[in-house]
Amino acid sequence: MxxxxxxxxxxxxxxxxxxxxxxxxxxxxxxxxxxxxxKVVILLTMHGAEWAIKTNGNQVDVPGFSSIAEYIDLxxxxxxxxELCATCxxxxxxxxxxxxxxxxxxxxxxxxxxxxxxxRTEHVPTVTF
Length: 129
Fold this sequence. Notes:
By secondary structure, the chain is an alpha/beta fold. It has a single domain (4-128), classed as DsrEFH-like (Hypothetical Protein Ychn, Chain: A), CATH 3.40.1260.10. The chain contains four helices and five strands. It has helices spanning 20-35, 68-77, 86-90, 114-120, and strands at residues 9-13, 40-44, 81-85, 109-112, 126-128. A five-stranded parallel β-sheet has the order 4-3-2-1-5. Helix 1 links the parallel strand 1 (9-13) and strand 2 (40-44). The radius of gyration is 13 Å and the shape is globular. The chain starts with 8 loop residues before the first strand and ends with a strand.
């Protein structure tokens, strides 16, 4: 488990395709922070777990903004870490109708438990989208 001390911002994304604007706002904030030199960690949980799947988020869903896939790539290129709640990945109700049923994760996604995010909240500024 990564320690909480080396992250400057934790972004928890609970929003999936049904609230894409909220998810884009979260990824946009994370990218702005990472590009400014802040060490960022994103946790994808609940419906936000959808974005960890390679077949999701490849198109532009919010006019004027990048696709979720582009945000993820840029955040990772700036040293950001993307985590996925392992329970949400396994929970069929959170990922119903995802692509053709395949659950192939994007590169660089780390499966973790919610304990990781919970223990960081004491020392790391945390925002939820």
